Inverse folding.
């Protein structure tokens, strides 16, 4: 496995609160990704990073921000969580044209 | 049109059956193709890459038809443990797509005794 971990694994919070999810990889992969997975939508890319301090938006980036200060860590922040952001969040890392390896996921519930 | 389309199923087959999944992709610039497997409430895991000449890994065979922009996965002698969702995945290169994977919505397989 790629040695990629996510924290927390589960979180319940209230609407309007800030939330930060962390992804840590030990494979020295340049590329890292945040996805959300919802019934009927499959995996959708939120943001991705192609290097330290280099990030770009995915298809569902509204309401999310990311930061990458080190190769190993990629943070996803919900500045003011909404109920529509209740989802399962997966982090992945990899190299272009190669398969991505996923973390175990974070189940986020926003009440 | 979605970038990657799969028949969502579900496919319900008995043990020992052969089952085939199909997938189409819309971006002719796509260069890399994969099948992932996802168990309920777990992360997606790479099942196999798909090569132009077709490739086999045990009971699993993947085929790619670039002219038709079509990918397939064949599972022979199905096992109960094959029950999962199978995701067709395409990697496009060039421009703003570089380094990104596009996932199909997945095909659900249930293998029953």
């Amino acid at each position: 496995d790629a040695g990629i971990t996510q924290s927390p694994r589960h979180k319940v919070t209230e609407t309007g609160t800030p939330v930060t999810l962390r992804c840590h990889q030990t494979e020295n992969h340049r590329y890292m990704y945040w996805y959300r997975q919802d019934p009927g939508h499959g995996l959708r890319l939120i943001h991705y990073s192609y290097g330290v301090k280099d990030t770009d938006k995915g298809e569902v980036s509204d309401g999310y921000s990311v930061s990458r200060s080190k190769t190993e860590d990629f943070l996803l922040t919900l500045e003011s969580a909404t109920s529509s952001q209740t989802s399962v969040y997966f982090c992945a890392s990899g190299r272009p044209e190669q398969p991505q390896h996923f973390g175990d996921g974070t189940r986020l519930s926003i009440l | 049109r979605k970038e990657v389309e799969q028949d969502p199923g579900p496919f319900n087959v008995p043990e020992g059956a052969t089952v085939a999944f199909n997938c189409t992709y819309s971006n002719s610039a796509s260069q890399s193709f994969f099948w992932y497997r996802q168990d309920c409430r777990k992360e997606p895991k790479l099942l196999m890459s798909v090569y132009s000449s077709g490739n086999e890994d045990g009971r699993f065979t993947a085929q790619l038809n670039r002219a038709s922009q079509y990918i397939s996965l064949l599972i022979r002698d199905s096992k109960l443990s094959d029950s999962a969702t199978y995701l067709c995945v395409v990697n496009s290169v060039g421009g703003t797509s570089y380094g990104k994977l596009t996932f199909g919505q997945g095909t659900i397989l249930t293998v029953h005794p």
